[in-house]
Amino acid sequence: MNALLVVLLLGPLVMAAVAAVIGRNRSRLAGRLGAGAAALGFLGAAVLAVAAALGHPASVSVGSTPAVTADRLAVVLLLLVYGVSAIVQTYAIRYLAEDDRAGWFGAGAGLLTTASAVLMTSDTLVVLALGWTVAGVALCLLLATYWRLPSARDGVRRTAVSFLIGDVALWSAVALIAATQHTVELRALAGASLGGPIIALAAGLVVVAALSRSAQIPFHRWLPATLAAPTPVSALLHAGVVNAGGVLLIKLSPVVTSSGVVQALIILAGLATLAYGAAIMLAKPDIKGALAHSTMAQMGFMILTCGLGLWAAAVFHLVAHGFYKATLFLSSGSAIAYRRRKRSLPPATARTRSAIPALLLPALGIALALLVVPMGPGDHTAEWALLLFAWVTGAAATNGWLVRRPGAGGVLTAAAFLLPVSLAYVWLVSTVSGFLAPDLPAAALPGTATWLITGAALAILGGLAAALRAPGATGLQRTLYARALSAGHIAPPAQSLPTQLTGARS
What we know:
- The protein is mainly α.
- The chain has three domains: about 1-125; about 145-330; about 345-445, no CATH class.
- About 75% of the residues lie in helices and about 0% in strands.
- The protein is built from 21 helices and two strands.
- It has helices spanning about 1-20, 25-55, 70-95, 100-120, 125-145, 150-180, 185-190, 195-215, 230-240, 245-250, 255, 260-285, 285-305, 310-330, 330-345, 350-370, 380-405, 410-435, 445-470, 475-485, 500; strands at about 60, 65-70.
- Helix 3 packs parallel to helix 14 (about 310-330).
């Protein structure tokens, strides 16, 4: 198994080198090789998952120190990395066909896949920071695919500045932790007695790094500036790279949870970005702009769950969001066509009558699913938080359906759909949480505080949705809508005027 782990980590890197050499002349072959390596990586990660479940995690050491380990947490994250990479690179074969930058994309995608896999399996502070930094560099290279475009250069500049701040913060935290604890092994930190001002400073620096990579306030402006990148790059970014902030907080949870002030900072940043991103998403008229701010809001939820110590919920969410958001970005062209068709439909009139069944049906589906698939023994705060947000999401989707399909027929159709979906979702949450439990730390906050903050997050989201989407424009609604649009606007980069207009001499 150890040899398999080495092959999984190095395979995409080898394909990256191949793409850099032959990509310009044989773009389809390079694309197929890259997609094939990622697909084999996904299958290999599944094999490692079985080994981890049986108590035999693969590990590779440098000297006597484990460098990378495929434990239960790592293999779940590897499935995300290789799965998204395989999907996106397969899509890119046709998307970038005959494009002279296809080789550049293949090389960058392979480098990003390897760096992300190293980050997910890292067992030391140094390997963690190396994977983190190289993944950021690879993303900036991918964002520069169409460097000739001023908007692309602006996106690279904004991203590089935010990532540089995060990288400096992370490496500084690594130095502080290593100097005070006299170890670089992540597992040694879990059993260490952490405290004091130096560790608190290190925890704050780790949070700065996580917020910068996940596009959280105050590092939120770089993500919307990257929309000039090709769709496959956007899919890799939104489905994979931004999740790294949550992974960093999970892997360094002993350090982060050692300071109550730092935990409060994480919670506030997550809540603020969740509300900010959701408001702009609801107001944005363009598909990719709405998806970018949706990612920002989703990462806010992930950061919030990390601040609450709901580690299982954070992992489940970032994996589900990764696959879901990759699909949304790759199908954004179809979404535009759907929106055009939607404009031709008659206006909906049954909003009020649909509200009560929309709230009840998902709740009933989840309740019945819990009777069939009950949670095992232990603390399930993370799972309950996920189910609560699943109920809210199901209620919103059901309401949209019943608005268009009012009456008993629409209700019965919704019920017939929600029951199997609820069963599958509850089973998946229970299975993944049970699988991850041995390798995840315990919740960091008491249950009362967790539920109060979760309720506040739901209230904020519900209030925003009601204010921005309620029928009939009010003064408050118009003000919120205008401010959301203004906040989500990224000014285009300044361009020099032609010399004939400026009078400048060359």
